[in-house]
Amino acid sequence: MTYSYVSHLYCPKCNNTYNVVEKNQLCSCGSPLLVSYNMEEMKKVFYPELLREREPNLWRYHEMLPVQSIENVVSMGEGMTPMVLMSSLGEDMDIPNLYMKDEGLIPTGSFKSRGAAVGVSKAKEVGVEELAMPTNGNAGAAWSLYSARARIKSTIVMPTDAPEITRKECVAAGANLYLVDGLIGDAGKIVAQAVKDYDLFDASTLKEPYRIEGKKTMGLEIAEQFGWELPDVILYPTGGGVGLIGIFKALQELKELGWINGEKMPRLVAVQSDGCAPIVKAWQEGKTNAEPWQDASTIAFGINVSKAIGDFLILDAIRQTDGCAISVSDEMLLDELRTISTKEGTFVCPEGAAAFVAARKLRESKWIKQDERVVVLNTGAGIKYPNTVEVDAPILQPKDRIVKDYVK
Amino acid sequence: MTYSYVSHLYCPKCNNTYNVVEKNQLCSCGSPLLVSYNMEEMKKVFYPELLREREPNLWRYHEMLPVQSIENVVSMGEGMTPMVLMSSLGEDMDIPNLYMKDEGLIPTGSFKSRGAAVGVSKAKEVGVEELAMPTNGNAGAAWSLYSARARIKSTIVMPTDAPEITRKECVAAGANLYLVDGLIGDAGKIVAQAVKDYDLFDASTLKEPYRIEGKKTMGLEIAEQFGWELPDVILYPTGGGVGLIGIFKALQELKELGWINGEKMPRLVAVQSDGCAPIVKAWQEGKTNAEPWQDASTIAFGINVSKAIGDFLILDAIRQTDGCAISVSDEMLLDELRTISTKEGTFVCPEGAAAFVAARKLRESKWIKQDERVVVLNTGAGIKYPNTVEVDAPILQPKDRIVKDYVK
């Protein structure tokens, strides 16, 4: 039985092709490479009913993933995260069919584990022994931990402002961790130099072709969880944008397989922060590429990316699905984060909260209709971001008694 | 269709019975109450093949859970956590079939969510509007967040030494949080007083009968994940011990249903810390109840429980399954925690690490045989315990270059 129907890599800019057995990075033209599958062969043997017999993790879609031998799969059980109906919040927003796909319930506590699981597995398959990457925190945590499991050495460079827990995860993994007094772009330059100096595999966003295949599984799961009847809108907090590109790729492939109705694609929404909104600006100006954002700053650190290497793919996905790009303020997302936890009991990450604010705003502007089914990606666990909550609780002594105002 | 085959509550000490429609706490004799089901009726309609059609969360076992109406289910998608083969660690321990059930991949990041999901759902069903509980952190986080989702008010009292993130989760949920300069026993006394003073529902461990049913689902999932062929040994970090009692109850019920071979029950192991080992002491001394442990102290804070109200049930479960109780040192568990993350890429909680140390020790003493299938419960996500990892990483400036010793 064929485990994967992967065929080759291709360049979406110059159409050059590459094989999937050697270590490949960017195309010689400088563009990211995408993975192609032999869909005609896959169609003959792969159908939705097969999935019912499989474990609830992302490897259930192995025919559509690039790892060719099951022996190379590096897994900690990632995927099939819950699709949670948010009734109270939805009522508050006037979106009765509001859902959260909760990517906090995954190894390392963020959606980055999807890209890491598939990316590291394929790196192992093509013989990578040592990799390096810049990160805003969560990707470094995920890639260093999956690399540890795969016996691949890792060098991680992250801004000093990245969530503190993520540097601890890198250390726990035994990675070579460096902090940089700057932004992820600065970390990227340091990694690029180290890659040259020490002949490392460059695992930077979209500089290796396979993490997008891992992120793609979010789209596959959304489709499966809705019984292959797609929702109307999907909102995604966008930094490097690989998740959005991946979801779009998933939907296109499902259409090609004939599993979904291709006439009614969900509208994809790229959500950014007012303090770092290069994609929003490019979209508003009708451009195909984004300009680097100056003095980028937001509490939603995961989307603090001034320049995304896949900007043209993000903008294309939004346009092709009649989606949009929208930014929100840090103040609003912090308010929303608390509204979500008190109304729904779900403690989301700042990036996820930003996407919920976007849903609220788009409903207010009527871009989202009342009867539409709306999915928000919460890209990580709130517990990785303790600084979003201030605690001011009374301290009692053992003989004390709770005496007053205990009910708020 | 009958959603639940729950029948009544019974006292394992005096055999008194209670109904499942009113608010019940302890038996009038002071013992915890257990939930009974109409197994004969359940058998007629509930069989393993049904599960394949159901979503991967703990409500797939709703016939065996106490919530009678699906409308009362308060869920964030909890359950069906991964069963991860730990090959490298297993090789290191000479236990080739070593598995981790990873309870970090669940809402609120700890196995406490199982008890909270079922306990809060049933509380909602019987009309609870306000509850209170003492906690070592994670249970308070879980119960306050699930209560928020259920529109139930909560009052949580936890030691000041409890993991800091858990107090933030309580605040995020909008709970009334109090810290106590003492141990969980002191928090328990304050809660008991508040329950009297303000007529609250007491959600303390085993003082309400339903959380054990939620914890029971760990046992159901283990059995299902092994294809109803049970593993040989299950190790469980034991504080209040509800998980162990629940797993034992699950196995008994599955035996009654005829889904498993009742002749070959897994040996259950209660793992404690050298600094707080009342169950281990009682087991060694052949007692049926445990004495309160003096000056309890361990870094594995979740198992820092001097006196468990269900001690007699824990000791009974260990004896009936030919299991054992064992304690480990804080030093060893911290070493093991790092061994686990570097070898397997899994970042576990201190309590989970303690249970892995116990597996190692029991293999060394030959209590665990080489060919046995061993399951360790990792009861929470490592990211909730940042203090287990020290970071000492170089800080670079944007123009810097990684120059030396980047490979460890």
Structural class of chain A comes to alpha/beta
CATH topology (fold) name of one domain in chain A: Rossmann fold
The quaternary structure here is homodimer
- Work out the largest interface and the residue count of each chain: A-B, 85 and 85 residues
CATH class descriptor name of one domain in chain A: Alpha Beta
- For the largest sheet of chain A, list the strands in their spatial order: 4-5-13-10-11-12
Return the CATH architecture of one domain in chain A: 3-Layer(aba) Sandwich
Number of helices of chain A: 12
Helix-strand sequence of chain A: EEEHEHEHEHEHEHEHEHEHHEHHEE
Keywords:
homodimer, 408 residues, alpha/beta, Rossmann fold, four-stranded parallel sheet, globular
Molecular structure report:
2 copies of one chain form a homodimer. With 408 residues, chain A is of the alpha/beta class. Chain A has a domain at 83-109 and 212-385: 3-Layer(aba) Sandwich (Rossmann fold). Helices cover 35% and strands 15% of the residues of chain A. In chain A, the strands form 3 sheets. The first copy, chain A, has a 6-stranded mixed β-sheet, sandwiched between helices. In chain A, helix 5 (164-173) links the parallel strand 7 (153-159) and strand 8. The longest helix of chain A is centred in the middle third of the chain and has 16 residues, at 242-257. Chains A and B meet through helix 4, strand 7, helix 5, strand 8 and helix 6 of A and helix 4, strand 7, helix 5, strand 8 and helix 6 of B. Strand 8 (176-180) of chain A pairs parallel with strand 14 (395-396) of chain B, so a sheet runs across the interface.
